[in-house]
Inverse folding.
């Protein structure tokens, strides 16, 4: 399907379900149109070589296999949301927080520590390589995700949330238990 069709689906769902999280509905419709649930044509399987947390934004790919979500998750930390969830993973340097962020239009978004190739760990390493003060940079993560302007990138089928010159990329993932979730995959500066 063309990117215009994905954009029309996204807009149609937002109009039909105002004030509701349309992320899961968007995925279900796209999966059905792309060949059915579990067909492997939506998400990472539909973009061979894509790496979660690549930090590239905009759908750039690498010739690497992504690590299954289940292996990245590790210990689940509960009782923390928003910036407190970010701080918890920075302190623990492992695990994940399910539903770390919530947006009315997408729903719950998970935050995963990951490793040097994927997740928050990778995002911070990338920004550090760019000479960005990651301590200061990550302090705005929750604000950008929770309060930024959200659009669907029809080419990558990812949500892009922007605020104050920073952009968070949210991608849909399925794990081995067929559990579906939205996960932060990139956080970058869009203007300096």
């Amino acid at each position: 399907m063309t990117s215009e069709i994905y954009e029309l689906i996204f807009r149609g769902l937002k109009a039909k379900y105002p004030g509701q999280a349309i992320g899961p509905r968007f995925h279900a419709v796209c999966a059905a149109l792309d060949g059915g649930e579990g067909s492997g044509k939506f998400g990472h399987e539909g973009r061979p070589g894509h790496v979660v947390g690549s930090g590239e934004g905009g759908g750039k790919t690498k010739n690497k296999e992504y690590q299954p979500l289940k292996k990245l998750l590790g210990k689940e930390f509960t009782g923390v949301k928003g910036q407190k969830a970010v701080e918890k993973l920075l302190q623990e340097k492992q695990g994940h927080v399910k539903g770390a962020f919530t947006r009315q239009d997408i729903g719950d978004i998970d935050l995963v520590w990951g490793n040097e190739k994927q997740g928050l760990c990778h995002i911070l390493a990338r920004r550090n390589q760019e000479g960005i003060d990651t301590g200061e940079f990550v302090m705005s993560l929750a604000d950008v995700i929770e309060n930024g302007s959200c659009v669907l990138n029809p080419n990558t089928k990812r949500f892009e949330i922007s605020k104050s010159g920073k952009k968070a990329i949210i991608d849909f993932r399925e794990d081995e238990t067929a559990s579906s979730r939205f996960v932060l995959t990139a956080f970058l500066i869009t203007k300096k």
Summary: DSSP finds seven helices and six strands in the chain. The first strand starts at residue 96 and ends at 103. The CA atoms of residues 44 and 188 lie 20 Å apart.
